[in-house]
Design goal:
alpha+beta
Amino acid sequence: MPGSRILPLMIAAASLALPLLVTVPHGASAAQCTATPPEQLSAALEIINRNRSARGATPVTPHPALIEAASRQACQMARQGRLSHGAPPVQRLRAAGYRASIAAENIGAGPGEEGGMIATWMQSSPHRANLVNRRLRDAGLARATDANGQVYWALILAAPR
């Protein structure tokens, strides 16, 4: 279709974020950057924790600083219209007030529902390794939508110092 963009499903692994509302500057790509609803975060963590349990890892729990960092990351990708880890997740976590001993981030574009994105990550060795890493204890998940309706996801998992 003329004027439309087709973005392939792409994923990558790395760090974290927190939900926020963002005002997009004039001339920048419009993006819908809102907090991940608690019920959506809860449902996503249930899926992640089932996968962790099946591999002998303890559950991860939501953490406000990680949610903040993930939200900022998802919104940044939506504004740019592309997947990018940008700064290392540990740096973004520190900016959100979380001192991590270890952090991992999964990002993705594609499925509009958390279950679909997590299933996609579970099919990728590096992303699955992040999801089931036994050292990680806290989590933050966010999604943002760009002006064309493309959904961007950021999941940050970490453990405190």
